[in-house]
Amino acid sequence: MIRFYFHPTPNPAKVALLLEETGLPYEVVPVDTSKGEQHLPAFRAINPNGKVPAIVDTDGPGGREARVFDSTAILLYLAEKTGRFLGAAEDRPELLSWLLFIASGLGPFSGQAVHFQYAAPEGLGYAVNRYRREAERHYQVLDAHLAGRDHIVGETYTIADMSAWGWLDRASRVRKGEDDPLAPYPNLRRLMQTVDARPAASRARAVGTDHDFKKVNDEETRRALFPSNYPPAA
User: Fold this and answer.
1) A GO molecular function for this record (predicted)?
2) 6 forms bridges with which residues in the sheet?
3) Contact criterion met (CB below 8 Å) for 201 and 162
4) What is the mean pLDDT of the chain?
5) 234 has a pLDDT exceeding 70
6) CA distances from 93 to 97, 116, 160 (A)
């Protein structure tokens, strides 16, 4: 059984999609990051970095319980556990390259673009421009790579496509104010349509919808999500 520590944000969405694709049995454990539950000692014992997603596999290697945190590590772990969605063996270097491109570039710059456009104080135009333009540059790199290709790596659907799906699903927030945020990136839009057409995608979108996550952006939420903006308690 997989215990899946979840909040409805892009990185957990990737893992939800892979779990639904593989059919592995799992239990959703809600972690309300707007309430600061990611900082509780019980969760920090699973992910010392205090972020979702994380999993605990009660049937890990050698039959031992295994914890895995960071969405890319989880994707690789679960794909290797099931032997699925890894592509051909000869595509492994390419798979790792694009997974890390998303993990270290597309995802973080998209997240910062959203933060500075929606959550940061007014008057930070340089930061807004910097992170949005870098996110868009990563969009362009991936869009150009997908020209004439159905999938990011090789000839089949892999965890690289799932990883990109998690963040591209938030394009309307990354490219704030754009009625059709993927219009300049037709290959990205095609990839999203391809993934969304899979039955597992609709099931992944439903994960966690039975839990009432906090939606109010108040002082508690800001302190929970951006603790480094506040001085440590005396």
Assistant:
1) transferase activity
2) 30
3) no
4) 96
5) no
6) 6, 34, 12
Cα separation, 128 vs 120, in Å, equals 9
Contact, 68 vs 59, CB < 8 A?
Answer: no
Amino acid in position 194 = T
Residue 25 CA to residue 138 CA, distance in Å, equals: 34
3-state secondary structure of 47: coil
| Type of residue found at 99 | L
Residue ranges of domains in the chain, CATH in brackets: 2-84+203-229 (3.40.30.10), 89-197 (1.20.1050.10)
Q: Shortest CA distance to 53 belongs to which of 207, 221, 169?
A: 207
What does the pLDDT look like over 90-111, one tens digit per residue? 999 999 999 999 999 999 999 9
What is the DSSP code (8-state) at residue 62?
Answer: G
Q: pLDDT band at 232, cuts 50/70/90?
A: confident
Query: Tell me: the pLDDT tens digits for 6-58?
Result: 999 999 999 999 999 999 999 999 999 999 999 999 999 999 999 999 999 99
Angle at 162 between CA 209 and CA 81, to 5 degrees: 95
Supply 208's token pair: 């966690």
Reported as type and span, the H/E element at residue 67 is: strand 66-69
Residue 138 has which token pair?
């990563």
